[in-house]
Each structure stands twice: as structure tokens, then as C-alpha cells.
């Protein structure tokens, strides 16, 4: 996937479809949908955590309030459009949080006799809880509300990872618990006649209602609610935005948001790539005991497979075959970290024997794309019937920082009531700088996975790379590998223009260099570029 492709806006409509995966669309226009809940992803989400593995900052939350049909959703979408390439933006509508109605309330609603504009009609605690989870970089499951049925549906939609969250609704500034979550509060001011005209047009076209019912509901509920509950909340707003001709206000808001995000930016990949220059107490080449790695026993079979995989003479077909064999050995060895309990069975000859049985409710695999895909076939040979997910993480060409482009996790990890009992096999081909591993582990922890329930399976680990910092940050994660190489050096991938490479010869990456000895000068190799014929591991 090229960086041009990853810069394309991708979206998932929370009210129709699976929000665990984003749909990619070419270009940066045409992102508007009929629904109010929208997730837009541009070039990916940069790190939101520090070298200690802890979250350094929250998502930026904007509250947009105003009367019915005042233009709140339009203002929210215009803010998104003005922000441009800001990664991972979500528009969260308060309409999704209407309470579940009884049969009596449903009858009143279909007769236009139920007050949907009163604060009591909205489940404010649930709205605040979902918003607080998203602000704290945790996953949330958003309720789905049907306007045609006037009822909250049983299904929910999974959402995770927005950098900017825009919460819009008539009561967005009414509840004090919600107001505490906002970094910026906006009130959309609009003329009452214009709001009524917009409401009639919207309800007739989108919700199939009659004008008479719309007017009756407006006079009985909407207008009094606006005067009593909505308009007074303008006093809590940081900015008052007109419902029309608001381009200047939108530009001011987007400039402020970009500045806030710039202040929260966090770049530390070089601290991982050259850890001993930034982390006091770390030796250049820590020993296996310090890294706490589970390395495959150095049997003749393992050494033979490693020799074939490292050889420049090995043909592609043999590389695939022997890498699958190595992946199978890694997964089989990693099974020791799962919990087991004694289990009594009766053999075919009638003898009772005490054996072992897996003692866990849920097991799943998560592949760090794209390099982790090479381990997937070997994983499925050992654990064939477990669900698989993926995390698409790619280095940004300008600064080599990791970008989270897509999250597709199994259902066990998306639900709070199952995630704590789930064991996760995380797959990646190597741990070099550890940047992708850092981000993947942080995503799993954000979802509530326990550290000691994560089993990281990888082929190669760079001893002098980010593994030492990774182990400091996540000491309870199990990491198993086939081999440990002492150092890395810096190279370029063809086809991407990066900083320090104005001619566009390639993208800067940190690569494994198994030929370097322990006494090699790390500073020299760390900044050396590869020749076209060099062989390296990715």
C-alpha cells in the first residue's frame, strides 16, 4: 500500500455496516452520508503514547450544540473538511443515545405525541460513558437508534481510535458531565423560522413524515424545549457559530484544533531505533536475560531452517515452505504460555489418565499487517478454529513514525464482557525498532486485554533495537522468537520520498543486519544507506 493510497479518506458509517473496518474511497471529497455518525480516516493515527507505554494525551473532543435543524451536523462536517489531513475523525450524534421506549411510549411516538426534545429522552449517562471511553483512547460500542421505528435497536456499533471526536446534538452542552469532557464547546445560533423550514424539509424527505404532524410536534415540544433547555446552554459555549455563512468561524475552529493537535504530537521512533542514546541504564547490546525473550531451542532442525531462510541462494518457493515450518514451530512453542488444567480421560482400553486441557474461554490471533501475514498460515496449522484479526500499521514517509491505518479485531476483543478472558497471539515478522509492536500492544491494552494474556510471536528480534524499551514498557507480555540479531542499520525502501531523500529514491526504514558483530560501531551503521544489491530482512 502506497502512502498516496493511505492518504485517501476512508470511512465507516456507524449506523450501517461494520465499524471495525474502514472503507476506503479515492480522493478527499464526497465523504458526506445520510447518517449522522461518521468515522473518517485520512493518513493514519500517529502515536498517542510515550516510551513507557503509557498514554500521553487524550483524543481532542468538540461539543456542538444548537436547536433542531440549526445546522449542527453541517458545521461538524465543515470542521472535518477544513481539518484536511488530520487523522481519524469521528462525528458522534446524540441522536444515537435516545432511551429504549416502552410499548406505550412507542404508541405516542408514532402519533407524534412523545417529547423527544426533552433532556429526559436522552440517555445522558451512556452518552457520557461512551464519549469518556473514546476520549481516553478506549474502544466503545455505540447504540444504534432507528428513527423509523422510534426505538433503540439491540445491535451496537464498535468504534475505536479517533484522534478528534465531534459530539453533536441539541443537548450536547446541557449535561455537566458531558461539558467536562469537551476540549472545545460550540453553539450553533440560527433563526427560528429557518430552523423550522429546514426541519420540515428534512422530516418529509428523510423520515417520511407529514407536514401537519411535524408542525404539531414542533409547536408542542420542539420550540418549548429550545427556549427552556437548548438556548440557555449557549452560555457554556466557547464559540458561537452562525447557522449560515459560517466559513470564517469554521476556519478559526479548524486552525485552533490543528494547533492543539500539533502541541500533542508525540514522536519517539528514533528513541526506539537508537535506545541507548535516549534511555539511561540501557546497554547497547542487552543480554537475553535482560530482554526476557523466549527463544526457540537451538536444535539442529531450527539452525538448519534459519540457515536456509538467511541464505541469498534460497529460491522463493523454499523460502515460503521453510518459513511456514518455522512459524509452526514458533506457535507450537508459544502454546506453553496458555493456561491449562488437569483433565481426566478414559483411554480406548478403559484406563483413566490425567492429562491437560486448555483453561481459557477465548483465544484469538491478531496479525500486524503486512509483515505479520507470513506467520498466519503457520498459526492456523496449530490453532485452526480461532478468530483472526489484523492491525494495519505503516511508517510515515516523512518522519518514519508509525501510523495506525486500520483496526479489525475479533469480536472477543471488541466487547468489554469478554476481553478480559481473552488470550491474544500477536504476530509480526520481526521486532526491529519496535515501533509497530509498541503501537499494536497499546491498541490491545486500550481494548482491555491483560498484558500477561498477550503472546507476541515473531521471527527475528534486533538486540540493539527497541526491544529493550519495549520490555521495560510491557514487562508481562510473552515474546517468543526464532533468533536474535545483534544490530540494525538504516536503509531505504524504493518508491517513497522521505526527509533527507529529496530525489525520492526511497523511504527510510530500520533493517535487521545479522552480519554485524557485537563490537560494531553502532552510530556508523545506524546511519548507513543500503546499496541496491543488499539483502535485508523486513
Helical coverage, percent range:
25-40%
CATH topology of the largest domain: Rossmann fold
Principal-axes geometry comes out as: elongated
Query: Residue-averaged pLDDT, rounded?
Result: 81
- Order of the strands making up the biggest sheet: 2-1-3-5-8-4-9-10
CA radius of gyration? 27 Å
Strand fraction: 15-25%
Annotation field: number of helices = 18
CATH architecture of the largest domain: 3-Layer(aba) Sandwich
SS-based class: alpha/beta
Largest sheet: 8 strands, mixed
Q: In whole angstroms, how far apart are the ends?
A: 15 Å
How many beta-strand elements? 22
Q: Name the poorly predicted regions.
A: 1-34, 492-502, 504-538
CATH superfamily of the largest domain: P-loop containing nucleotide triphosphate hydrolases
CATH class of the largest domain: Alpha Beta
Count of spatially separate domains: 2
Pathway: Pyrimidine metabolism; UMP biosynthesis via salvage pathway; UMP from uridine: step 1/1
Protein name: uridine/cytidine kinase
InterPro entries: P-loop_NTPase, PRK/URK, PRTase-like, PRTase_dom, Uridine_kinase-like
GO molecular function: ATP binding; uridine kinase activity
Report on the architecture of this protein.
Pathway: Pyrimidine metabolism; UMP biosynthesis via salvage pathway; UMP from uridine: step 1/1. Keywords: Kinase, Nucleotide-binding, Transferase. Residues 1-13 have a biased composition (Basic and acidic residues). One of its GO terms (molecular function) is uridine kinase activity. Residues 297-490 form the Phosphoribosyltransferase domain. The chain has 538 residues and is α/β, with parallel strands linked by helices. It folds into two domains: 3-263, P-loop containing nucleotide triphosphate hydrolases (Rossmann fold, 3-Layer(aba) Sandwich); 282-337 and 362-485, Rossmann fold (3-Layer(aba) Sandwich). It is 32% helix and 24% strand. It contains 18 helices and 22 strands. The protein has helices at 3-6, 72-83, 103-110, 124-135, 176-179, 192-207, 211-230, 247-263, 269-273, 288-291, 300-310, 316-334, 376-382, 411-414, 416-419, 435-446, 467-473, 522-526; strands at residues 10-13, 23-24, 38-41, 60-66, 89-93, 140-146, 151-159, 164-168, 184-189, 239-242, 294-295, 340-346, 352-358, 362-369, 388-395, 402-408, 422-431, 454-462, 478-481, 483-485, 488-493, 507-512. It has an eight-stranded mixed sheet with strand order 2-1-3-5-8-4-9-10, with helices on both faces. Strands 11, 14, 15, 16, 17, 18, 19 and 20 form an eight-stranded mixed sheet that branches. Strand 17 (422-431), helix 16 (435-446) and strand 18 form a beta-alpha-beta unit. The longest helix has 20 residues, at 211-230. It is elongated and about 85 Å long. 41% of the residues are buried. Residues 1-34, 492-502 and 504-538 have low confidence and may be disordered.
Amino acid at each position: 500500500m502506497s502512502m498516496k493510497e493511505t492518504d485517501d479518506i476512508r470511512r465507516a458509517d456507524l449506523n450501517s455496516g461494520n465499524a471495525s473496518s474502514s472503507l476506503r474511497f479515492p480522493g478527499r471529497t464526497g465523504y458526506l452520508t445520510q447518517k449522522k455518525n461518521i468515522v473518517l480516516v485520512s493518513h493514519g493515527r500517529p502515536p498517542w503514547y510515550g516510551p513507557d507505554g503509557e498514554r500521553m494525551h487524550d483524543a481532542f473532543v468538540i461539543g456542538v450544540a444548537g436547536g433542531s435543524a440549526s445546522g449542527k451536523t453541517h458545521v461538524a462536517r465543515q470542521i472535518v473538511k477544513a481539518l484536511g489531513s488530520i487523522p481519524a475523525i469521528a462525528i458522534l450524534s446524540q441522536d444515537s443515545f435516545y432511551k429504549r421506549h416502552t410499548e406505550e411510549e412507542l404508541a405516542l411516538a408514532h402519533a407524534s405525541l412523545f417529547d423527544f426534545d426533552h433532556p429526559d429522552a436522552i440517555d445522558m449517562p451512556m452518552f457520557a460513558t461512551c464519549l469518556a471511553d473514546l476520549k481516553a483512547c478506549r474502544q466503545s460500542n455505540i447504540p444504534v437508534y432507528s428513527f423509523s421505528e422510534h426505538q433503540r435497536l439491540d445491535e451496537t456499533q464498535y468504534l475505536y481510535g479517533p484522534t478528534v471526536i465531534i459530539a453533536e446534538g441539541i443537548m450536547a452542552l446541557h449535561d455537566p458531565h458531558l461539558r467536562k469532557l469537551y476540549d472545545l464547546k460550540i453553539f450553533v445560533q440560527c433563526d427560528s423560522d429557518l430552523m423550522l423550514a429546514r426541519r420540515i424539509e428534512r422530516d418529509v424527505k428523510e423520515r417520511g413524515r407529514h407536514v401537519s404532524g411535524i408542525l404539531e410536534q414542533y409547536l408542542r415540544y420542539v420550540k418549548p424545549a429550545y427556549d427552556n433547555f437548548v438556548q440557555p446552554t449557549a452560555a457554556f459555549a466557547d464559540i458561537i457559530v452562525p447557522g449560515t455563512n459560517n466559513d470564517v468561524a469554521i476556519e478559526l475552529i479548524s486552525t485552533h484544533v490543528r494547533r492543539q493537535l500539533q502541541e500533542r504530537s508525540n514522536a519517539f521512533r528514533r528513541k526506539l531505533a537508537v535506545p541507548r542514546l535516549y534511555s539511561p541504564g540501557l546497554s547497547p547490546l542487552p543480554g537475553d536475560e535482560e530482554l526476557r525473550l523466549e527463544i526457540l531451542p537451538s536444535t539442529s532442525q531450527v539452525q538448519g531452517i534459519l540457515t536456509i531462510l538467511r541464505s541469498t541462494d534460497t529460491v522463493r518457493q523454499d523460502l515460503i515452505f521453510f518459513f511456514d515450518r518455522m512459524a509452526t514451530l514458533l506457535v507450537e512453542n508459544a502454546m506453553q504460555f496458555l493456561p491449562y488444567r488437569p483433565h481426566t480421560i478414559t483411554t480406548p482400553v478403559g484406563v483413566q489418565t490425567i492429562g491437560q486441557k486448555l483453561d481459557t474461554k477465548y483465544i484469538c490471533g491478531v496479525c500486524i499487517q503486512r509483515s505479520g501475514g507470513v506467520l498466519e498460515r503457520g498459526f492456523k496449522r496449530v490453532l485452526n478454529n480461532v478468530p483472526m484479526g489484523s492491525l494495519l500499521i505503516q511508517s510515515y514517509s516523512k518522519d518514519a513514525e508509525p501510523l495506525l491505518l486500520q483496526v479489525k479485531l475479533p469480536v472477543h476483543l471488541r466487547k468489554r464482557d469478554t476481553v478480559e478472558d481473552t488470550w491474544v497471539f500477536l504476530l509480526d515478522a520481526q521486532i526491529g525498532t519496535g515501533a509497530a509492536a509498541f503501537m499494536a500492544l497499546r491498541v490491545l491494552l486500550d481494548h482491555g486485554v491483560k498484558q500477561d494474556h498477550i503472546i507476541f510471536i515473531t521471527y527475528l528480534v534486533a538486540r540493539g533495537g527497541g526491544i529493550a524499551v519495549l520490555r521495560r514498557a510491557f514487562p508481562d507480555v510473552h515474546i517468543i522468537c526464532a533468533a536474535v540479531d545483534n544490530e540494525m542499520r538504516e536503509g531505504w525502501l524504493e518508491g517513497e520520498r522521505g526527509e533527507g531523500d529529496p530525489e525520492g529514491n526511497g523511504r527510510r526504514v530500520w533493517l535487521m543486519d545479522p552480519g554485524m558483530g557485537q563490537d560494531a560501531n553502532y552510530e556508523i551503521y545506524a546511519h548507513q544507506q543500503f546499496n541496491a544489491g543488499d539483502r535485508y530482512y523486513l
